[in-house]
Design a protein that fits this description.
Distance between the termini: 25 Å
Number of helices: 1
Shape: elongated
CATH architecture: Roll
Number of strands: 4
Bound molecules: zinc ion
Oligomer: single chain
Largest sheet: 4 strands, mixed
Strand content: 35-45%
Length: 76
């Protein structure tokens, strides 16, 4: 079973999401991030490897002083 821990009614299915990260005035959007997405409430969950990759990519943008950056996470 892959039941959603948020709504308890949906099931988690593989998909992609857009993750938004904010720090101070900066915003980084990461598109096409692989995640498990609830088919009921649309909550999403990233595995630990993906989370690390997302944070690494965002960190580069923050360090470059980007105010708004839109990135795509490459599919492995
Ligand atoms: Zn759900």
């Amino acid at each position: 079973m892959n039941a959603c821990p948020i709504c308890k009614n949906g099931e988690l299915e593989p998909g992609t999401v857009t993750v938004t990260l904010e720090r101070d005035e900066a915003i980084v959007l990461l598109k096409k991030v692989p995640a498990k997405v609830c088919n009921n409430c649309a909550s999403y969950f990233l595995d630990s490897i993906t989370t690390r990759l997302v944070l690494q990519k965002a960190e580069v943008s923050f360090k470059n002083g980007a105010e708004l950056e839109v990135l795509q996470l490459q599919a492995a």
